[in-house]
Every structure is written in structure tokens, then in C-alpha cells.
Amino acid sequence: MLHLRMITPPDRTEAVVAVVERTVGTTHVVVVPGAARDPQGDLVLCDVAREAGDELLHGLRELGIHEDGSIAVENIDISLSTRADAAEEEAPGEAADAVLWEELTEATHEESTLTITYAAFMILATMIAACGVVLDNAVLIVGAMAVGPEFGPLAGICTGIVQRVPRAAGRSLMALVVGFTSAIVATTVFSLVMNALGLFNEGMLENPRPNTSFIWQPDPFSFVVALLAGTAGVLSLTSAKSGALVGVAISVTTVPAAANAAVALSYGDFGQMWGSGVQLALNLGGIVLAGLLTLYAQKLLWRTQRGRWVRQSK
To answer: What pLDDT is recorded for position 72?
Structure first.
């Protein structure tokens, strides 16, 4: 269940309540006239099944409540109410399959904004991966994958395209390009410094690396794994069971490929640098493609399911 807290202009409170009451899956409606002070208005509270949340938010947006008042949405972890159980039964579909597009847009916006913190995580993750590449240490590679924040912009690109918001997709693409560019440049300098200190040397890069050589040797499986990881990552965002952007791209070599390219560049090994670049492109492209297909499929599935329920209820 979701809990909505709305501040509504007094002249639109009745319209808001009407939208809430005609949305299947809503319950626990509370109206407190004149309770809000900033902005001034009435306070309207309600609970809604997650499956019906997107429809309700769309109706409230059409009334302009988000412009002249406010709409706050919270997830309810525990709800001991027979009426709430009945509301969830009435709503079409399953909560775990429902996509809250407003929630998805907000989550990807936060994670795909180009900030100093985002760039710092990208640089640190790539430097960790560089150490893993040189030492042929798979543990460090996995650690770098978990630290890297690159899935946020990738999900933002997919969401912006599916929602037809070019500005959001462009912002995410900018964060992705600038993030990887700054990480590769910083890691190249880092490699040169480590070489000067005697901690890195060219032999460590050129020696056989059974644990990490796959990073700069892309093959068909690189794209296949990227598709699978991209699908899993987007599902983790849209599912009610898991919405955090934490390590969802753990199975693909984006940050490690960028790190290998940077180290190879510092030693002038353009063969490895090219292979790493291809690996990076395959993984980024695979994740975006899988993300787009997953979101479009979810949108179509939910629209079909909703239409079937409306026809049955008539």
C-alpha cells in the first residue's frame, strides 16, 4: 500500500476527493479543511494499493495539485486494516508488478544528476578497478563494480526515452559521458603516479591475467550478460520489492573496462585500450537496450492488464 498526503486548494478539494474515491484500490480517506498553512489549503490523506497508485497520481496531476499544492507519497510497510486488504484485492494486478512512473522518474533523477559526489564515486571506483586490473585481482574488480554509480544515468536514459522526456534523457547521458571521461582521465594520471612510485609497471599489465583478461577481450557473451544485467537492474527499480540503485550492474564490466583502458593508455598499449573501449561500449549499449525493452514491456503489460480489468468490471 501507498500513503498519499496532499495539500489542496480549497476550491479543488472536492474534485480531489472525487478522483480518490473513484480510483479502485483507495481507502482511509481523510479530509481536514484549512489545516495547511504553507501553502494554504486543505489536507487530504488516503491510502491506495500500489497497483492503482500510478492512475491516482495521474488524475491528481491533471487537477494541477502538484503546482498549487503538494503531493507526497510514502510506502506503507505494515497496514493492519481489513479495508486496506479489501482495497488491494479490488485493485487490478499485483503490487510487485506495478510500475510507479513518478517514483521511477524521481529515483533516476536523483541518481543521474551530475554532481561532485557522483563524479567522485566514478573516479574512485575506476581507480579501485585499475588496481584490480594490474594485480589481476577479481575481488577488487567486483568491489569496483559495486562502488560504481553508472547504473543511475543508464536507468535515467531509459526512463527519459520511455517517458518521452528528452531533457531527462539528455541530462543522464551527460552525466554518463562526463563521469566516464573524468574517471578515465583521473585513472590514467593515477596509473602514471603509481608507476612513478614503482607500484605499477608495464609488465604487470602485459603479463597473463587469467582473472581479468576478459575485461579487454569482448566476445558475444559480453553483450548477452549486459542484456541480462540491464533487465535485472531495471526490474529492481520498478519492483515494489527492491528500489535501490545499489550494485545492480554487478555482473557487467563497465567501470573495470574503463579502468583497463586508462591503465593501457598510460603505457601506450592501444590494443588493450581499444579492446577495453569495445567492452565498455557493448556493456553500456546492452544495458540501455535491455532497460528500454523492459520498461516498454512493463508499460504494455500493465496497460493490457488494466484494460482487461476495466472490461471485466463493466
So the answer is: 94
